[in-house]
Amino acid sequence: MSATHIEVMSLRGPQGFNAAIIEAAARESLRPSDFVRRAILERIERTGVTPPAVKPFAPRHSAENGGL
Questions:
Q1: 49 or 61: whose pLDDT is higher?
Q2: How far is CA 51 from the centre of its chain?
């Protein structure tokens, strides 16, 4: 997945936090950043807040579809 995100966020977590995110993302075949973004958006919705609209992802280019 690839999209233009204009806001950058940084956070701290307990020891092993990053490793857990990487493992969870891999289990869902996602990049860690996509996994975290989805998890946060889902949590925002569960609190009753409407999350910002996410623009559709641009297709990735690959040799199979004529990209580089």
A1: 49
A2: 14
**64 domain-assigned:** no
Q: Is 37 domain-assigned? A: yes
Angle in degrees, 0-180, between the axes of helices 17-27 and 32-46, rounded to the nearest 10: 90
**Rg, C-alpha atoms of the chain:** 15
Report the amino acid identity of residue 50: T
Question: What range does the domain containing 19 cover?
Answer: 15-50
Task: Please write the tens of the pLDDT for every residue from 14-56.
Answer: 999 999 999 999 999 999 999 999 999 999 999 999 988 876 6
Asked if 21 and 32 count as a contact pair (C-beta separation under 8 A), the reply is yes
Contacts of 31 (CB under 8 A, 6+ apart): 1, 25
- Which ranges in the chain belong to alpha helices (H)? 17-27, 32-46
